[in-house]
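Section 5.1 Outputs to date
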Amino acid sequence: MSQPKPVLCRYYYADYHRGRATEECRLIKRNPDSRPWNRSLCDTCPVPDILLHTNCKEIALEATVVKKWGVLERVEVYAICAKHFIELEDPMYCPLCAEE
């Protein structure tokens, strides 16, 4: 039996204690306008890379599950710098944080 690849994301939650099988993405769960989350979305989700490589120390993220081409589901991310209150076009780079 093969096990899924481990998820290294601060928003992923899993509880298997005493027979439970609870898995969820707490970032997507906060967004009521999102499509339902499933575990396979974590394999292509950009959030762990954004959190690891961004130059913004106070980044705020919002994630949404969207359908691409009517078939494939993927995670789209909306990011703002909470320190400077600006929307980030590229979540990996905040121009005002880079100046500091």
